[in-house]
């Protein structure tokens, strides 16, 4: 019983039983590739007639070039279902989309790197190079000298690599949200180092990619400037905070000193003494003197 990624393959349904009526299968290097092809119709579909979103207008010119759609990671031909027919009508030619190995209904095989050497990557069905060779195979299958390649997300990597592998077979590249990451620093190029199995134009393209660009240098300079400005602003805010804290402490200390000096002065002592005397006399007259006089008068009346 064959297991791939810990799953018994004999227990799974045949992908052809899950395919749509318009699905097709072909074998490429021992892999059953699932794909779909849409041809241009004489009349545009209703979705194009209802929405006049095309900037080309009703008198658009057909480019008469086939188009291959490459889905992203975790996706499949299903991702392109709603755009394949409209695209075929716009370009006036065939549009093909296929499930890259490891996705969709394309068959899975067990590969553990049995082949060593230069053919190891091309024989690995899950490598980018294998997807590139599959893309070029479908260009031949469509019977086109050139094709427009559309890559979405991780599929954009395969699209770009297809151009570098066979630039004469790629008419144009369309990258939709490409998952392509540029290196932060350009790798060193050894003098006299040539890329194997590449044309002179491809070697020039790779060399231009390796050399540091003006844009990259400007980006690094702007990044350094922004870091310097941020660190300077932090230092300024920290210094201002310390200054305001020192001013606050000085104001509190000055207030305490002024209040203490006023309370210890002779005028303050005189005012406090007289205030206490006035308050004491007021309390004596209101609460002590009159009640005592009243009791004395009442006692005298009782005696008389």
Structural class: alpha/beta
Low-confidence stretches: 47-57, 189-198, 205-211
Overall average pLDDT? 78
Q: What distance lies between the first and last C-alpha atoms, to the nearest angstrom?
A: 135 Å
Helical element count? 9
- How are strands sequenced across the largest beta sheet? 3-4-6-5-7-8
Question: Main β-sheet: number of strands, strand sense, barrel status?
Answer: 6 strands, mixed
Instruction: Supply Rg.
Output: 44 Å
Describe this structure in words.
By secondary structure, the chain is of the alpha/beta class. The strands form two sheets. A six-stranded mixed β-sheet has the order 3-4-6-5-7-8. Strands 1-2 form a two-stranded antiparallel ribbon. Helix 5 crosses helix 6. The chain is elongated. 18% of the residues are buried. About 9% of the residues have low confidence.
């Amino acid at each position: 019983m064959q297991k791939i990624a810990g799953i018994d393959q004999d227990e799974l349904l045949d992908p052809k039983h899950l395919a749509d009526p318009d699905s097709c299968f072909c074998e490429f290097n021992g892999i059953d590739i699932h794909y779909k092809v849409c041809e241009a119709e004489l009349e545009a579909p209703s979705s194009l007639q209802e929405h006049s979103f095309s900037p080309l207008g009703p008198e658009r010119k057909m480019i008469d070039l086939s188009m291959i759609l490459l889905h992203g990671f975790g996706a499949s031909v299903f991702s392109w279902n709603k755009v394949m027919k409209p695209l075929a009508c716009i370009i006036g030619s065939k549009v093909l989309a296929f499930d890259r190995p490891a996705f969709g209904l394309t068959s899975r095989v067990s590969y553990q790197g049995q082949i060593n050497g230069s053919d190891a990557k091309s024989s690995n069905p899950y490598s980018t190079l294998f997807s590139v060779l599959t893309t070029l195979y479908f260009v031949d299958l469509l019977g086109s000298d050139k094709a427009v390649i559309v890559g979405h997300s991780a599929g954009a990597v395969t699209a770009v690599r297809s151009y570098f592998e066979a630039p004469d077979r790629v008419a144009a590249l369309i990258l939709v949200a490409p998952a392509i990451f540029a290196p932060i620093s350009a790798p060193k190029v050894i003098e006299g180092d040539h890329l194997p199995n590449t044309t002179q134009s491809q070697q020039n393209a790779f060399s231009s990619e390796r050399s540091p660009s003006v844009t990259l240098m400007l980006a690094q300079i702007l990044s350094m400037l922004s870091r310097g400005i941020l660190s300077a602003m932090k230092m300024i805010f920290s210094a201002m905070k310390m200054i305001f804290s020192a001013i606050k402490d000085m104001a509190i200390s000055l207030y305490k000193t002024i209040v203490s000096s006023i309370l210890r002065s002779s005028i303050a002592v005189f005012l406090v003494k007289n205030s206490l005397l006035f308050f004491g006399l007021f309390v004596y007259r209101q609460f002590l003197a009159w009640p005592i006089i009243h009791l004395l008068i009442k006692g005298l009346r009782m005696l008389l």
